[in-house]
Amino acid sequence: MTYDILATDLTLLAPELLLAVGAMTLLMVGVFIRKDETAAKWVSLLTIGLLVAAGAAALFLVPVAGGTAFRGAFVFDPFALFSKVAICGAAALALFLAGPYLKAERLARFEFSVLVALAVLGMAMMVSANDLISLYMGVELQSLALYVLAAFNRDSLRASEAGLKYFVLGALSSGLLLYGASLVYGFSGSTGFNEIAIAVGDDPSVGLVFGLVFLICGLAFKVSAAPFHMWTPDVYEGAPTPVTAFFATAPKMAAMILLARLLYEPFGNAVDSWQQVIWIIAALSMAVGAFGALTQNNIKRLMAYSSIGNMGYALVAVAAASETGLWALLAFMILYMVGVIGAFGVILAMRTPEGMVEEVDDLSGLSQTRPGLAWSMTGIMFSIGGLPFLVGFFGKLFIFYAAVQAGLIWLVVIAALASVVAAAYYLRIVRVIWFNEPTQKFVTAPTPVGLVANLSGLATVLLVPVAAIVFLWARGASIGLI
User: Which HAMAP family does UniProt cross-reference here (predicted)?
Assistant: First the structure.
């Protein structure tokens, strides 16, 4: 009987086992190849294959068994499996984009791909966490890999500063997370989500509420929600651009899903205790994202503030505290990642014969020098900004619908006003692309970069007819969590 339980647990953990064993194997492969560029190329390709395999395992292998593993420490429901597929896909695209940049900047080392695989392993554990201990294990495994990735360019002062800031503030957030977990354990007598839910009941104690607030603060740092966003602009600007592209997609998805699971499952009966906290964080994030980006000239810093604002919209769905809010969150995050990965594809194409450029004004006249990239960036900016009727618009529409249904009218009003303000800096980029005279002559973008940028730009329009599929998939994944 024990062997049957172990076999079931290992089957459920197939994506995580693939990533863990694969990362260690690829580490050895890179060591034995010896040549940096050759090792980096082959390990990168194999890591992309590994991520695809892990996503396929989550999609096809794990649903056959379903349930929980290791005495309830991990849960494998449609909500977690949906998230794992999205995370693996986003990480694979980010790694696909990174190759040409790392080679051009002489940063091609196989350790980069291994660190991405280990970070994704942590994210997979996060979205399946059903216990405070497994939650913390996943968060720290992801974070430790991301700290190193942020400072991957050891010769760059900006990258070293970004890595150090991320590490110091990340340690602070981990402290908040651990303190909150210890309070919850102390007042509930357990670390398992199911047992905590029983202890919370209909009238949670003051100690449990305090513990929950600390947990929310720790996870708010991971999604760069205000007022825990202070690391985001500096890290986005200082880290290598492919790392920033990775930061803006998969880790945000994992942390947001973990936050939703934490609030909806063990603290589902304490909605009145946490809804107002999420309400305030969402409003602050939307305001900071909208107004903070207006004065930014560096496009990576601008995208950092855009990310802060969009995480505010995602938190509106969480604040709805309903099944509708849950599937709206999933749909929004998928459609948001489509636009963001394409935006960073265009940023990676901003290379002149002298090297990379990152200022918004460097995009001047892009419509004349690179029409394909100009159309892609235009569609992506309009989509992230929520312009009807691109895919990003439907993501926000789902969230507004969930919030109105939950009676959060004032939060919807704030979100709508923030969208209007944020439209100013998205339109500024479009104006620079189409109405300014060229100031830079970009070299031809490498095939992976151009392919991702152009396909993402097309997806903002072409995905509209299949937005219903994303909606149905997200709705199916959210059933049963509440």
Answer: NDH1_NuoN_1
Q: Please report the sign of the dihedral spanned by the C-alpha atoms of residue 340, residue 345, residue 348, residue 351.
A: negative
3-state secondary structure the chain: CHHHHHHHHHHHCHHHHHHHHHHHHHHHHHHHHCCHHHHHHHHHHHHHHHHHHHHHHHHHHHHHHCEEECCCCEEECHHHHHHHHHHHHHHHHHHHHHHHHHHHCCCCCCHHHHHHHHHHHHHHHHHHECEHHHHHHHHHHHHHHHHHHHCCCCCCHHHHHHHHHHHHHHHHHHHHHHHHHHHHHHHHCCCEHHHHHHHHCCCCCHHHHHHHHHHHHHHHHHCCCCCCCCCHHHHHHHCCHHHHHHHCCHHHHHHHHHHHHHHHCCCHHHHHHHHHHHHHHHHHHHHHHHHHHHHCCEHHHHHHHHHHHHHHHHHHHHHCCCHHHHHHHHHHHHHHHHHHHHHHHHHHCCEECCEECCEHHHHCCHHHHCHHHHHHHHHHHHHHHCCCCCHHHHHHHHHHHHHHHCCCHHHHHHHHHHHHHHHHHHHHHHHHHHHCCCCCCCCCCCHHHHHHHHHHHHHHHHCHHHHHHHHHHHHHHHCCCC
What is the distance of C-alpha 161 from the center of its chain? 22
Instruction: Tell whether pTM > 0.70.
Output: yes
**What are the pLDDT digits (tens) for 277-336?**
999 999 999 999 999 998 899 999 999 999 999 999 999 999 998 888 888 898 899 888
Q: Which residues contact 294 (CB under 8 A, 6 or more apart)?
A: 421, 424, 425
Q: Whole-number mean pLDDT of the chain? A: 87
- Each residue of 109-164: pLDDT tens digit? 889 999 999 999 999 999 999 999 999 999 999 999 999 999 888 888 888 888 88
Residues with Cβ within 8 Å of residue 280, at least 6 apart in sequence: none
For residue 396, is pLDDT > 80? Answer: yes
